[in-house]
Amino acid sequence: MDVNDFIYAGKGDFKLKDWATDVPKAYRDLSQADIKASIAKDIAELVQDQAMLYAQNEYSLLLIFQGMDAAGKDGMIRHVMTGINPQGTEVISFKQPSLDELDHDYLWRTRVAFPRAGNITVFNRSHYEEVLVDRVHPENLLKEHIPGIRRVEDVTQDLWNRRYKDFRQMENYATRNGIVVMKFFLHLSKGEQKKRFLDRINQPDKNWKFSAADIKERRYWDDYQHAYEDAIANTSTANAPWHIIPADNKWFARLLVSKMIDKRLDDLPLAFPTVTAEQKAGLQAALEELTDK
């Protein structure tokens, strides 16, 4: 599997319609059993890489998951991160900003949540909501204390362009400081979203997942597609490209993400810390004392 086929690094025009939402033809022969077995192997490799990442305490990993409602973000995080050490791992779900968060600059709550050295942090939604939900509902910006933005009519393309620039600069800064930024867009079709919403209504054990707000936001489907397209086109860079994941098939999407994460970590010079001669002498002394007693 060539994961590069699903990565947009900012070169050439980006149009969402050119990217598949379903399993590409080349991979349709994969059975669910084969996919689950492959994911299990990927997770085992991730566990080993995480151990080195944590011990080395030099690099860290930030995984950002974005997608329409019902795109599978929660399930993706649950399956791909299963089995890794909770120590050194954090999952953060960004909801509607609180009054305290609105009193800070718009990047504050995500910026302070970036991972410390040696850790893996997962963002379920992220700072990209500030150019997605806010773009579809620009009235939200009136609560953010932005100089010069007092009416919806004050919101122009220039504001979004400034935010795209902020994102690029913040992610480049993070990269220079050892934070590997991986951004995943779970690309779901409108038809598959409808199917998943119906499942949430018709299956009692899934009723808790259903939200009337999701149906309301579905009415803005085209607006969200445009917002995602513009955001991805303007924030994909060589250091922090967007990974466009066909999300209509949940298991294939999970397989693709697990392989992408493993490949990125394999590219890092990860290793367990080298024990110095002085430390070895200390170990030997401790061994002799323990053996004597």
From TrEMBL:
The answer, when asked if Kinase is one of the entry's keywords, is: yes
Q: Boundaries of each Polyphosphate kinase-2-related domain copy? A: 30-266
- Is the Transferase keyword given for this protein? yes
**TM regions (residue ranges):** none
What molecular function terms (GO) are annotated for this protein?
kinase activity
User: Which keywords fit this entry according to its UniProt record?
Assistant: Kinase, Transferase
List, alphabetically, the PANTHER family matched. POLYPHOSPHATE:AMP PHOSPHOTRANSFERASE (PTHR34383:SF3), POLYPHOSPHATE:AMP PHOSPHOTRANSFERASE-RELATED (PTHR34383)
What name is this protein filed under?
Answer: PPK2 family polyphosphate kinase
- Source organism per entry reads Lacticaseibacillus mingshuiensis
